[in-house]
Write a structure and sequence with these properties.
Pfam families: TPR_8 (PF13181). With 215 residues, the chain is mainly alpha-helical. Helix content is 69%, strand content 0%.
Length: 215
């Protein structure tokens, strides 16, 4: 797996501005909020040795939510996010199966509503494509990653997560000066109400990557 495979950051999409949109069905909105909140708790507060089981339980919860609301793009997006993060905690061949399922979740989200959650599915797919191995092990593809990440940026040009993953991708491609600019812009992103844990965790990851780039 690539550099991030042990901790697939998709992880990472810990809650987008306007994630619970006004037009969202109230029951779906409640489910999305639960998935986001629990995801951030697991990623940023739970001991590492307990995360794999916790992500697996959250994946089951996401699947139950999808069974009740199969046309909710937001739930498909979060199912993909949770499943891909579970893959990072699981590792090995089991991770490859999970990321394929995550890709299907995210593609379904885009087919239903590409703007849901401020384009989270675009950025999540982009992150998957540059983090997983390429053929013959998996579907990793840097060119596709860039296309999806750019689409995510088009929807959320000032988003904490869209800029973080763009900066991380640029670093992976050896464009560290551009990566620094994107990451510093990410640190200026507006706080996300109700997403304090996710924001703090993401900003810590950004600062850690900037520190890596500067040494």
């Amino acid at each position: 797996m690539k550099r991030h495979a042990a901790t697939l950051i998709l992880v990472a999409l810990a809650g987008w501005p306007g994630a619970v949109a006004l037009a969202m069905d109230p029951e779906v909105a409640s489910m999305v909020d639960r998935l986001q909140t629990r995801w951030a708790e697991i990623r940023y507060a739970l001991p590492e040795e307990r995360r794999e089981a916790a992500y697996a339980a959250l994946t089951d919860e996401a699947d139950r939510a999808l069974a009740a609301h199969p046309e909710a793009a937001e739930l498909h997006a979060w199912a993909g996010i949770v499943r891909s993060t579970q893959a990072g905690a699981t590792g090995g061949l089991g991770a490859l199966s999970l990321v394929k399922q995550a890709r299907a979740d995210l593609e379904k989200a885009l087919s239903l509503d590409p703007l849901a959650l401020d384009g989270a599915a675009y950025t999540s797919l982009g992150a998957l494509y540059y983090q997983v191995p390429g053929w013959p092990l998996s579907f990793g593809d840097d060119a596709r990653a860039e296309r999806y990440l750019r689409r995510g940026l088009a929807v959320s040009p000032d988003g904490l997560d869209s800029l973080y993953f763009w900066g991380d991708y640029l670093h992976e491609q050896g464009h560290d000066d551009q990566a620094r600019r994107a990451l510093r812009q990410a640190l200026e992103a507006a706080p996300r109400p109700g997403r304090e844990r996710a924001d703090a965790g993401r900003r810590a990851e950004i600062r850690a990557l900037l520190d890596e780039l500067d040494h």
